[in-house]
């Protein structure tokens, strides 16, 4: 019982990380109509930008988080304007392959700038809180913060999408691009906001992953598959579904370690993703947005 | 032919299409602010294409589109909206996951200032929408969706409203009601240019009508005259 609760907590932490990535993937797919393969490397770059703020300015990871989010939002917009904008009117598969190329470029750059060995944000060991009421369950403060901040960010995105004119325009564009143009919605401005949000949340995912584990140039790339699985589970183009999708994938991946080797965690995400694509390609929230 | 007020829209000798062979081969359309102008014609005649060409969604290769005397040929949709032209496409003309109210807000995206009074005007015209303002448009019936689509277009206070088959798929009762609403909109001083399959009824309320075939004007006359024309009746109105 205690084990299961403990693993549930790990699953929620991983789920938070995946959700942050999946919201971006889902929004980018909804509005730009392509699977953004560089999103994992956006997460990595966000994590390393955070590392630089921690190293140079001596910030704690929690204060480096907003800085990394802003930095990554800027990078995402620049990449869009330099690369993706120029091929916007081509077929989606060309954008997909270009994003794959962008993923490789970013990873190489990260290795060049920060090196390819493992790095961590903080030295020293954090003492977990012991919850004696729950049979000595141990909870790390970091984990609590990761889950809480993720929930806060999702709530923020939700409010943005449902309360602001720009947020509604984003939903309108992902609903019906042609009608959005006919209505006079400025598509390019909406796309830039999409990258700002997608980039910022990718950075949050990366920093959380860095806080929870360690930094490595392929940390995001290896997380991309479960991020895509979470986005598909939540329903592609539906940001609110992404948090549920992220939690289900994260918890399933961690729970699987009770039965099979931890090396198979990505396979669990992959299996869920394939089953979803076969049986419920619209995601679990069909028609309820 | 009536030409009491200034010409709102004047499309002159339009040629153009989707990149391949021209679909429009010399289309001419005019509409005044006080008119309901109806375009009829067989399937594939290029009626929808003509509407899109006027609104800048299909490239006009040669020919001119004038709006209030100004050249707007191939202008961007955003420009069209700003000038006071609103367009309701034939299909997929609502944002399904947005509520009725949000659909209206998106219609008024470019408008500065408070959208509330405009919205209230739309709700006055279509009280059914007011009851359902919080419902996603995708969950509504075909008839209600057409109202949402028209409401969305009206949010910019257009001078010209372009409707592509606003009664397609509606029950006879709803068709009557929709035509009533269109007359009401026109009575507010908004010019209406619409494509219609229910040609008999549409021509009955039309100031003028065009019969389009293979991308060019075949007939042009007042609504009643077109209805009375035996050739038109035989070709397009089912005898
Ligand atoms: N997006 C498109 N790309 C290429 N060709 C198209 C496109 N849309 C329509 N066409 C072609 O243009 C021609 C005219 O089509 P259009 O939709 O304008 O006809 P219509 O008169 O509106 O017909 P309907 O009564 O069925 O709505 C048809 O031959 C059609 O196949
Ligand atoms: Mg048509």
Automatic annotation (TrEMBL), chain A:
Coiled coil: none annotated. One of its GO terms (molecular function) is L-isoleucine transmembrane transporter activity. It is a multi-pass membrane protein. InterPro entries: ABC_transp_permease, BCAA_transport_permease. The chain crosses the membrane at residues 6-30, 65-84, 93-114, 143-161, 190-211, 223-251, 258-279. It is found in: Cell inner membrane. Keywords: Amino-acid transport, Cell inner membrane, Cell membrane, Membrane, Transmembrane, Transmembrane helix, Transport. GO terms for biological process: D-alanine transmembrane transport; L-alanine transport; L-isoleucine import across plasma membrane. Belongs to the binding-protein-dependent transport system permease family. LivHM subfamily. This is Branched-chain amino acid transport system permease protein. It comes from Onishia taeanensis. The lineage of its organism: Bacteria, Pseudomonadati, Pseudomonadota, Gammaproteobacteria, Oceanospirillales.
UniProtKB/TrEMBL annotation, chain B:
The keyword Signal does not apply. GO terms for biological process: L-amino acid transport. One of its GO terms (molecular function) is ATP hydrolysis activity. PROSITE patterns: ABC_TRANSPORTER_1 (PS00211), ABC_TRANSPORTER_2 (PS50893). Keywords: Amino-acid transport, ATP-binding, Nucleotide-binding, Transport. Residues 9-239 form the ABC transporter domain. InterPro entries: AAA+_ATPase (IPR003593), ABC_transporter-like_ATP-bd (IPR003439), ABC_transporter-like_CS (IPR017871), BCAA_Transport_ATP-bd_LivF (IPR052156), P-loop_NTPase (IPR027417). It holds the Pfam family ABC_tran. Belongs to the ABC transporter superfamily. This is Amino acid/amide ABC transporter ATP-binding protein 2, HAAT family. It comes from Onishia taeanensis.
